[in-house]
Amino acid sequence: MAEAATARADATVRLGARNISKSYGPVRANRDISLSVAPGEIHAIVGENGAGKSTLMRILQGMEHPDSGAIIVDDQDVRFSQPQQALETGIGMVHQEFMLAPDLTLLENLVLGDEPVSLAAGPLSRIDWAQALQSGEELAKKTGVAVDWRRRAGGTPVHIQQIVEIIRLLRRGTRILILDEPTAVLAPQQVEDLFVLLRNLRDAGTTILFISHKLKEVVALADRVTVIRRGEVSYSANVAETDSDTIARYIVGGNDTSLIETGRASRSRTGDGEVVLNVARLEAPSLEKSHPLHGVSLSVGKGEIVGLAAVSGNGQDELVECLVGLRSASKGRVELMGGDVTHATNGERRRKGIAYISADRRHEGLATLAPVEDNVVAGSHDRPPIGQGMLLSLKQKRRVATERLASVDVRYGNLGDPVSSLSGGNQQRLVFAREIASEPKVMVVSQPTRGVDLNGIAAIHKLLLQFRDDGGSVLLVSEELEELLYLCDRIVVMAAGRIVGEAPVEGTDIAEIGRMMVMQGHADG
Amino acid sequence: MIVEQIIAASIVMTTPILLAAMGGLVNRQAGIVNIALDAKMLTGAFVAVVVSSATGSWLVAVIAAALAGALVGLLFSLVITRANANMIVAGLGLNVFVTGFLGFILTWVYKSSGTLRLPDVQLLPHFLPEAVSGIPIIGRALAELEPLTVFAWATVIVLPFLLASTRIGLWVRVTGNAPQVARSMGLPQKSIQDFSTSFAGFYSGLGGAHLSLASIGLFNEGLTAGRGFIALAAFYFGRDRPVATAMVCLLFGFLEATQIRMQTAGLPPKLIGTIPYLMVLVALCIAGWRASRRKALS
Question: Which residue segment(s) compose the domain that A195 sits in?
């Protein structure tokens, strides 16, 4: 015991990996990965989607076992046969999708699995809620955040949920905190607050592993950065001694760091002020954990990309569903080229020229288990040249599919392979090819680059700009503000189901949009 | 007089539904929609008659019925949680299987088709002194009060506390609400679900015992008459809350009681008999409509 305690105090490696390899069938997700995180350090792990970050984190957390290699905690080799052991050793992870039960209160979520009891009787023990509340309050005070512990977790703003999850781990004795893309759901100001909290935790002795693909955040927060590319560590350095260009180079490999352009794309002005899509005073009920629409009005002109910025769950998904015909509006109008389509079905709207690129590629955008060729021709399968009377021409289907896939440079094995075998970027390009094929007047595009790697993002941006330059209109919903600033001609900001502001991209900066996004966001949720 | 009779009959009719519904709501809170409550009630009813006849003790019979229900529940749960069977399909299967199997036992062991009459079946005792029947309005209901009805209503009172403030209650709720959260916090999600299904079986078994031992003292293949499904509707409508669910059970019990009266009044009995089931459909429509309203308002 005494030895272990000393080892802990002057450990040089708080958490590490030595030569970890892990394969799933033919896929080598992790190859010979070594990593060492010093006590009290914020260590960023960066890499493209599919680079192997998540596999490594699952191994460190005891959810997967490495084929070879070892995990190191406090300079000692350890083996976890289940997540529970990692938790007991002091390793806790905040997942991308929050691990709070939505119908339970925050307090109930806090004590879950480690309940203070006033009357011990095994599972029938009576939980001491007063003591639970006290421990929650104490920890919340340390984080500097006011938490209403009686509130249902599902009705709580996401940044508070995140903090409650961190508090829960601290309460369970977590010394090593792993955060998986923690800023993905946060508005800029909330990101700042989270960083302040994480720095405070580090200064109080907690070791933090921060997984991200946002280089700016890595540079702003981390002490050290490790880049993973194609399952291997490609780079590791102190943040003070490197810069984002260098890190980016190691993320994508090769020397092409200009894949993701920042700043502004070329502006095209094919438009003549003609309104293509017009939304007037739209009202609609909400999805779970979100906001209903309150009198939303906006318009998209010909040859224009209009961005919609909002923190996730502020009504943007409801709006998108109302526009494409997946949700019925309770009041207001949706007009396409001056014609009323408010109550048109999804199919009718498609025929009239509204295309849709869903944020939920796996469920709404694609039939993931169906072949590549079926996915790319879906929607035009029922008319010539593919649909011929009651029958499909398989020959024509293959021809059209091949053409479409080539037009957007989708890399695939065989036409008959399931679409799930493609990478995220290729899947999204396939969706684009399908949607553009119907020659839509307007595309409603939601989170087009979510889960897409850097190469794929660049390609999708080019496709969107190309569509606009050809006279198409786009309503682009994205949580990536840089993406909006890069692509859009105007940006509309939404919060709590209302349009709270509009800005031309010229002369607008991210902070300003961020402020508008959180001004009313969640305040009345 | 009629009011007294209807109140007494309503209480009696409510008890088996209430017992099954209390079990089923705990099960559903743990994330398992148990459509096989009926099978467990039928098992309980059968076991209760057999054991009561063999031992001459209603208490032993009731305990045996509850344990038999719990055992069927546990097996059912293992099929769902360990073998990953679909809970609805497995539940349908269990209902059909239990009905068929008990029918087989009746003909094979007892050489009777449909109904099982055994000698010396001890019924549930009416434990209050005969004098209470003199009390106006509720006197008759009090006089007919037996232990299972008391137990059922005691459960209604205690269950909210158990769910809200004990470890197992919290575990059950988190398992149903967010199983992946339960798992990541180190809770044995599958075992918790197995417990909840056994609990539902235990209570359904008691409900079955009430059906066979409250007054008739015999077992019949169609004895439950779909009461397991009525219980299901009750906790759906009561949104898995014990007290609200109990009120719905009381309503169904009342409908059953009045339905028997109406039959004696000369209305076509088969048609009247469908009223509680029709009400179940109405209740489920209202529950669904309310849920979508709530979602829209939130």
Answer: 2-259
